[in-house]
Amino acid sequence: MPMILGAALLIYVFVAIGIYKFVKQKTDNKWIKRGALAFFILLPTYDIIITNTLGAYYCLTTPSTYVNKKVEYPISIYWEDNVYPEFDKKDRELMVKNYLNDIRLKVMALGAPDGKVYVYQYKDVSQEYYQLAEEYATFSKELQKLRQEFKKATDSYPPNWKETRDKYLSMDKENDVLRNKLSALLNSFELQETIYDDKNAMPQMNYTVTFNEVRLNPFSRKFLYSDETKIIENQTGNTIAYNRSDSPFFYNIAPDFALGNRYYSSWGWEICESQSYLYYNGDGFKYIASYGSAKHAVNLNIKLYNKYIKGEK
């Protein structure tokens, strides 16, 4: 495909040059000649100019990512994903696996495609699990410190760098053992699933995470895809974390060569470089925001391609 496109562009350049020379021979009007030149330049590149102009506008006029409250133990969260939409069985299993640990998060509520809400929590978790979790957390902090020492050692290679390396690799293996042991112990407990007819029928969660597509105007939607994530503190109704993402579609002269099944381009666009993902901001890590991203079995970019390009439901 890249070779075919390259050949097509080469042919286009030769044809454009030929026609432009023909126009120059037939007229002395400088505006006609300039118009012809502009036409052949803009024909394959107009979308690049429009996309980046719109991108600059939206980056300057839309809210920036923010996290204004640190919550290390949210305890209960309801996810409402209106882009996929919601969480099917595989998605729910993935969310439980990634987030529900009965320490920071004890109750998880997930909207389903049929409008029902699935609430998950582990039952009768033993004290042994909490003790092991505390041990793992302490060990992980020590490993993090050693990781920084090891990184510095590999930058300068002091005389004892091999000792630091060996200690780090040993602790890293031990950390993996602890993590796997903790995961196995958690999975040994009963996972309770309760189904409610809708979100109004379920118990109130401490926080709600919403994920919605931003419906740009009809013209902008031809060049950009936009979505936003909010984390809402249900007791106060305040949005304590927010992120909006504006992504360009692939350019006409640079389509999706790698996979061919993505809806928008997620790299190489620097206009919005000040935007950051919701789980991080300039002041440092805020734990609540790590829950801003939802886990799905199908990547969002591919999901949107299947939805809008292939017409799948």
Automatic annotation (TrEMBL):
Entry keywords, A to Z: Coiled coil, Membrane, Transmembrane, Transmembrane helix
Stretches that traverse the bilayer: 6-23, 35-58
Coiled-coil ranges (or none): 129-156
Name of the protein: Uncharacterized protein
Organism: Sulfurospirillum diekertiae
